[in-house]
Each structure stands twice: as C-alpha cells, then as structure tokens.
Amino acid sequence: MDPVDAQANLRHLLNEWDPLGVADVVADEYDCMIAPLLSKLAAGGGRAEIGEFLWHELGDHIGLSHPERYGTDPMADRLVAWWAAVSRND
C-alpha cells in the first residue's frame, strides 16, 4: 500500500474510533498516532503492543482517565486486522 494511502486509511480508522468525540470538528486530532502506529504495525506489532500504545496515548498523551473505557483493545484488534489485510495485498 502506498504510504500516503496508508496514512489516509489509518486517519479514517482513528477518526471513526474518535475517543474524544471531536473528529467531526478536528479531522487531524489523532494524526500524532499515525506514524508511530504505522511503524509498529510494519514491524509486526500485534494486538498487545498496539493496544498498549493506544492506552498510553489516551492516558498519558491526551490525558483521558480510564483509557479502557474507550475500547483500546477492540481498536487494537481492528488496526492489526486492517494492517494484515492491506499488507497482504502488497
């Protein structure tokens, strides 16, 4: 997958998840997660690593308490499945 397409697709997935509820107003709110996620996924990061990253981003970077309430594990599953599908097509 073209890197630009991968970034756009990942932005779309993160905005659908939208733990802050702001994606309709600020389309680039989660862009800080795109490069690290793509790096982790490309390096073979699985559900645990991706989920831990999302947890850290929501809790430490964004400042949300109780990141588990925002579905970090299901989102990690979704991202890993997405990456497996798009990288299989390359």
Automatic annotation (TrEMBL):
Source domain of life: Bacteria
Name under which the protein is recorded: DUF1871 family protein
Organism, as annotated: Actinorhabdospora filicis
